[in-house]
Amino acid sequence: MDRREYEKKWRDNNKEKSAAYFKKYAQTPKGIKSKRINNWKRTGLITDDIDKIYERYMNSTNCECCGKEYNSSQRDKHMDHCHKTGKFRNILCRNCNQLRGHIDKDYKLIMKLITMC
Ligand SMILES: [Zn+2]
Asked: Which CATH code fits 44-116?
């Protein structure tokens, strides 16, 4: 039995202990970082420098586009990346990140909206 099989068997036989351990781990700085980075990777971020991006993300206090200060919950802070290449771009507020996504999808439509004003 290899290590993975052993760990899976242990988790299956110790479900309560396992759940309690992961719940506790998820609240540590290492667990929070791991969860955040896994979410970024799941959304398509591809980088060799994840620690540097995470540090920039954690130290960012204002949107790198509009300058709006983030609220204390950190839920307004978004890691902007190119959805075609997976390359990291900026740390943005929700509004700027969504706008950038729309620009990426249909630049001509955004230009039409601008000229209609
Ligand atoms: Zn912004």
From this structure: 3.40.1800.10
pTM for the model: 0.76
User: CB of 78 within 8 A of CB of 40?
Assistant: no
The alpha carbon of 80 and the centre of ligand 1 are apart by a number of angstroms equal to 11
Contact 81, 45 (CB under 8 A): yes
The C-alpha atoms of residue 3 and residue 5 are separated, in whole angstroms, by 6
Distance in Å, CA 31 to ligand 1 centroid: 27
Single-letter code of the amino acid located at 4: R
Band of residue 75 on the pLDDT scale cut at 50, 70, 90 = confident
